[in-house]
Specification:
By secondary structure, this protein is mainly alpha-helical. It has helices at residues 2-30, 38-42, 47-54, 61-75, 90-94. It has a domain at 46-94. The longest helix is centred in the first third of the chain and has 29 residues, at 2-30.
């Protein structure tokens, strides 16, 4: 019986320790802490789905999709709708080609 209580206590401590780590990571990100890209990797959006929605009405879907997925991978956001709304994703709106044209559709 004593061994069972000890195991239960140890398991509880491990679980609580894991929860404390998770809350400290989210608290640090909410306060603007730099976590070395840990949260960026965890909360990536589904770029192919977002870009297929964005490029659904384009006349050149494959080209639109290719450039959109590159921009999405870099910025981790895609503006809503099929065109415009780039003010909702500033990084997406700033990327330019070598000819200084907007790269992201």
């Amino acid at each position: 019986m004593m061994k069972l209580l000890c195991l239960l206590l140890i398991a509880t401590l491990f679980i609580q320790g894991g929860l404390l780590e998770a809350t400290s990571v989210t608290d640090a990100s909410a306060q603007g802490g730099n976590l070395g890209g840990l949260l960026d990797q965890k909360y990536r959006i589904n770029c192919p789905a977002a870009c297929s929605r964005r490029c659904s009405k384009s006349s050149r879907r494959k080209i639109c999709f290719r450039s959109c997925t590159g921009c999405c991978a870099r910025c981790n956001c895609v503006p809503p709708g099929t065109s415009g709304n780039t003010h909702l994703c500033p990084c997406y709106a700033r990327i330019r080609t070598r000819g200084n044209r907007l790269k992201c559709p």
